[in-house]
Sequence to fold (313 residues):
Amino acid sequence: MKRISVVFATSLLVIGSMFGILAANPPAHGQFTGTVCLINPGDTSCPSSPASVIGTVGTQLRVSVFIQTSDGFNAFDITLLADHTILKPAGADLTGTVLPGPQTILAKCIGGVLVQGSRCAPTDTVDTVHLAAVECLGCPLTPTPTTGLLFTAIYNVTAPSSGIPLGFQTGCPTPTSVGTSSTCVTLANGTLNPVPENVQTAVFSTANFAMAANPTSLTISRGAQMISTITLSSLNGFSGTVSLSTSIAPTTHRPPTTSLSGNTVTLASGGSASVILTVSTTKTTSTGPYTVTVTGTSGSITHAVLVSVTVTR
Fold:
C-alpha cells in the first residue's frame, strides 16, 4: 500500500473559496488518516491488497471509488488511470456519494474530454477518469471518521485482459516539498491543509474460460472409435453458457467423424464441466493424420482445443 499526503490543488482551493466551502470551525489537526481505494460495487471496505475487479468484454464496468476511516472533508479531486484499449473511460457517477448534496461538480473529464465543469487538468488523458466535486453550500464536513462511496467510475470493457493495473494518475501539481509530482487523489476540508489519505489500487481482469483435452492425441484403427474428454473451466469468475462445435482437417479424403456428448455447457463461477468427444472411423476411412478442433464460444469469447488423430489400418 502506498502512503501519500495529498494536498488540495490550488485551483480547487480558489474555486472552493468562491463557493464558501471553508469550514466554519476548521480542525487544528487530523485525527484519522483514511484510505481511498478501488473496489467492486457492493463491497463495503477497502482490502489490504489490490482488489480484483472482473468484467466481460462488450459490457460496461462500474468501479467504486471508496473512502474508509477518513477525517471529515467537504470536497475531493480524484483521477483514475487504466489502459484505455482495455478499459475505455465512459463516465463518473456521484449517486450514493458520502458528500452531502446537492453537490457541485467542479470538473468531470472522461478520457481527456471535458463533460462538466470549467476545464480538464493537464494530467487528463485518454486513459483517465477525472472527477472533482464539492458538497452542498453551507453543509458541515462529513463525519469523522467517514467511510463510504465517493463516486462510481464507469468503463466500457473493449478487450480481454489477464490482469492490468487500475489505479490513480500521477503528476498532479503540489506546492509541498514532497516532490515535483503526486498521486492525483486529493480531499479537502476547507483549510489550506489537505486531508491525508492512503491509496489502494485494484487489478482488472476479464471473466474468461479455459479448455483442455485429455488425451490430446488418439490412434484409431479403421472401424473403431475412441474418445477424449473436453474440460472447460471458469476463470476470473466467469459464469455462463458455452456453445461447442467440432471440425476436422484435412477433409480431402474420407476423414473420421466426430461428435460431442453435448453441444453446450453451463459454467458456474469458479466451476468446471466436461463433454466427451468421440472420434469414429469406418472400414473405408482414409488412413493418416488428422486434427480435430473443438471450439467453445460464449458471447465475444472464443477458445479452441486441438486433438491429434491418427487413423491406421
About this structure: The longest strand covers residues 146-157. The radius of gyration is 28 Å. The helical segments are 10-19. The chain has two domains: 2-206, 208-312.
